[in-house]
Amino acid sequence: MQQFAVIGGGISGLSHAYYIARKFPEAKITVFEPGSPGGNIATEIHDGVLLEPGPDSYLDRTGLFNSMVAELGLKDKLLFEDKRSAKRYVLKDGYLVSAPKSPLGLITTSLLFFPEKIRIFLAMGKKFSLWPTITLFDAARNILGFSAAEYLASPFARGVYGSEAEDLEFSSMFPDLFRKITESPKLKVALKQYAREKREFWQAELGDVTFEKGIYSFEGGLITWVNALRESLKARGIEIVCDKIARIGRDNDGRIILSSKAKSYPAVDRVVFTSGTADLSYVFREFDKELSRKVAELVYSPINVVYSCWNKKEFSAAGYGFLAPRKERAPILGTIFASNVFKGRAADDRFLTKTMISGDSELFKDAELGSLTEESLARIFKVRAKPLWNKVYRHSPGIPRYAPGYGEWKREIQAMVQKHEGVHFAGWAFSGIGLADQLESAYMYAKTLKA
Ligand SMILES: Cc1cc2nc3c(=O)[nH]c(=O)nc-3n(C[C@H](O)[C@H](O)[C@H](O)COP(=O)(O)OP(=O)(O)OC[C@H]3O[C@@H](n4cnc5c(N)ncnc54)[C@H](O)[C@@H]3O)c2cc1C
Prior knowledge:
The chain is of the alpha/beta class. Among the domains are: 3-40 and 221-298 and 402-448, FAD/NAD(P)-binding domain (3-Layer(bba) Sandwich); 103-206, protoporphyrinogen ix oxidase, domain 3, CATH 1.10.3110. 37% of the residues lie in helices and 21% in strands. The strands form 5 sheets. A 7-stranded mixed beta sheet has the order 8-7-15-16-17-14-18. A hairpin with a 5-residue loop joins strand 11 (247-250) and strand 12.
């Protein structure tokens, strides 16, 4: 019987435990988590309103999430994005402009000028040779043109990664797409093959799972999913131990020994680390000094979240929300109109916004972040309303930054980790930035495991 340890009870750690147990029902699996299981997922209720300080939705493009939800018996609690929130906006010259939702939308959007739309059309028939460290901004500019870099790549980078498009490595954000683009004779072929291969792979894996592509949450927020996962792990005999792992070593038989400051745990055959890189670096400080140093090099983008609750009579807006490109010089990254997206998040007479602000959280007081949000929204929407309250959350160190050089860094880490049999690194520092990346990487890890 194989023995596994999973370090970290965020969504990556819980999903790793889940898929390992599904593949090896007999395996002994222990998850270590010193805080609340869920990690960044930390739904809470404030003044009768549901708040998600971290992630608020899961974008399902493969069906993997929906199949897990069905297995967990959670379908009746699942919420799909409200159709009324379908429109996403980008700030351009101080105004909100509808963002394209599909390649066809690039033709109709007023974010791009007519000659740039022609350029995109022509680009589809061309071959592109991109260098591996090209930034997202330069990749978008080379392929789609300058306005697309400014008004599509930049807001996307800021909204999803909390970073500027100039500070992100395209090949690390979209490794499979990058490979396809550089290998294919035409961009059009690359995009088609990329979409087809992904679709076919997941269809073969999951069978006939029916689902709608889009964003999901649950009644009670994303923590409902975490709680169901915990219950399912418990039912399979998987223990979540409330402790922080501080050291890794080997016993005389070469098996992996993990210990916290207080105690040592029984040896395991395999360990999956899903903690952030500062914690990883600390755990490996004696076991492998070089790896410990290398892992600590990853840079993060600190991010602050400001929830504001408004009296709907004084301020509300339609759609999903908007993102602010760097060019607009707005102090905020963007705002989600949270009460529009999923039903029941706030009372009918309230309007709830979730605004993201980048930067070192220590520099600003809560009230300053609240004022920054109010002033920004007042300028964009030309309203004078004051919110009933603001609630501020700080994410520090923040979002792992896939900066130019990240791909090389990750390859070096993987080479070092390979020397340590049974050790695997996952979580958003290594597996991609979104919730979907964590689920997919957990699924793939279990798939590659041999009995
Ligand atoms: C503000 C914000 C909004 C976001 N919105 C979305 C969204 O809407 N949709 C989306 O798809 N993604 C979103 N994301 C990204 C999403 O949150 C991440 O993909 C996901 O939470 C990463 O999960 P994880 O398990 O890798 O890390 P974490 O959630 O950080 O979990 C790691 C866990 O490891 C534990 N740990 C650390 N050290 C140790 C140790 N030594 N021993 C044991 N345990 C340890 C920690 O306590 C923690 O619980 C958002 C992120 C942020 C910050």
